[in-house]
Structure to design on (234 residues):
């Protein structure tokens, strides 16, 4: 662990923690919804064991993603996926609203793990891309962020609703990470650096702008639809 801390890039580590927290808003909702009908003493157990199982599964998936990202073009495809994930985050699309609450401890734990597995693609791609293949960083970053996500989920949701700039900054960071993933791709990255002046910096910056602008535009359209729907029904 000491070697990891000495050789670690703290900027990358902070990015991993921040991205994991930003993208875990939906997962926090799943934890709350799946355990809401349980007695209070069982709610804590469901949150702990469900969260533990979900995080363990996510770590395994992230390791798999790290090795897959070494294959040509996979990094570039992951970057494109991350751009869409970042735009969806700004657009305000929420998952987990149809999650049913478990009536037993085991049912709630199973719901949390299964739902988190389905919803963890964004976290896995983002963390694997940010870590740049450093498994130690992935483990350390996830360990630090786990308690924040599980026990501070409600506070995080309130903060994001009160300060939308947090979500905007998170989306921008995802856009930048998407650009870095493309740069690290063996084939696409070489093409970018050979044919685009200062492509190593230009591409991530362009993707940040695209994510923020497109995400804000789509979010505004969503708000306009929500305003028009009640009026059209009347």
């Amino acid at each position: 662990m000491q070697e990891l801390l000495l050789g670690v890039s703290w900027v990358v580590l902070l990015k991993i923690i921040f991205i994991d927290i930003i993208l875990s808003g939906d997962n926090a909702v799943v934890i709350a919804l799946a355990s809401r009908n349980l007695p209070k003493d069982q709610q804590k157990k469901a949150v702990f064991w469900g969260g533990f199982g979900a995080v363990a599964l996510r770590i395994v998936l992230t390791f798999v993603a790290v090795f897959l990202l070494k294959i040509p073009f996979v990094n570039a495809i992951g970057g494109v996926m991350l751009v869409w994930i970042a735009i969806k985050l700004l657009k305000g699309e929420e998952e987990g609203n149809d999650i049913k609450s478990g009536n037993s401890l085991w049912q709630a734990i199973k719901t949390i793990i299964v739902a988190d597995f389905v919803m963890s693609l964004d976290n896995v791609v983002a963390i694997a891309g940010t870590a740049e293949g450093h498994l130690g960083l992935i483990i350390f970053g996830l360990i630090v962020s786990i308690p924040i996500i599980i026990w501070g989920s409600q506070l995080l949701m309130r903060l994001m609703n009160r300060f939308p700039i947090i979500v905007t900054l998170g989306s921008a960071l995802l856009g930048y990470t998407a650009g870095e993933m493309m740069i690290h791709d063996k084939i696409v990255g070489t093409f970018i650096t050979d044919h685009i002046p200062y492509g190593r910096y230009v591409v991530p910056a362009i993707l940040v702008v695209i994510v923020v602008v497109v995400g804000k535009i789509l979010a505004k359209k969503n708000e306009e639809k929500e305003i028009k729907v009640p009026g059209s029904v009347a």
In short: Confidence is low (pLDDT under 50) at residues 1-6.
